[in-house]
Design the sequence.
């Protein structure tokens, strides 16, 4: 199983000129190793682009994505990592979703397919990252 970060999915959904080829290739390779996983945060980040939950569900079914809830242990880990980020001078408030994603990957011991290497390496060093 591989947890797939929102940015990789958006590359495919939007046809991002710079990243779509890399993202599609990585999704295909990860899919060969096992299921592709998303969580509630990733669902919500993608859902803002659609009119209904059914549309999002249909998209994710086409992309062969499996939903996995974020366990409480991961929620706690995300809060503590975000706290360290803020104490270290992090000022961006919109990054908390990344901490939920990284913590779930850490707790579930899932590799994470993402283009955001630095934050995940810093706050979730045990997570195997699949990055450019």
Sequence:
């Amino acid at each position: 199983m591989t947890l797939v970060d929102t940015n990789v999915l958006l590359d495919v959904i939007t046809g991002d000129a710079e990243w779509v080829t890399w993202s599609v290739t990585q999704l295909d390779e990860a899919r060969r190793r096992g299921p592709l996983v998303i969580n509630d945060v990733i669902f919500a980040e993608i859902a803002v682009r659609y009119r209904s939950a059914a549309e999002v569900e249909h998209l994710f079914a086409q992309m062969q994505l499996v939903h996995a809830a974020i366990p409480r242990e991961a929620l706690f880990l995300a809060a503590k990592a975000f706290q360290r980020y803020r104490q270290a001078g992090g000022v961006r408030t919109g990054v908390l979703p990344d901490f939920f994603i990284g913590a779930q990957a850490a707790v579930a011991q899932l590799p994470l397919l993402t283009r955001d290497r630095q934050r995940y390496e810093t706050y979730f060093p045990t997570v195997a990252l699949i990055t450019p």
Notes: The beta strands are 2-4, 36-38, 65-67, 112-113, 129-130. DSSP finds seven helices and five strands in the chain.
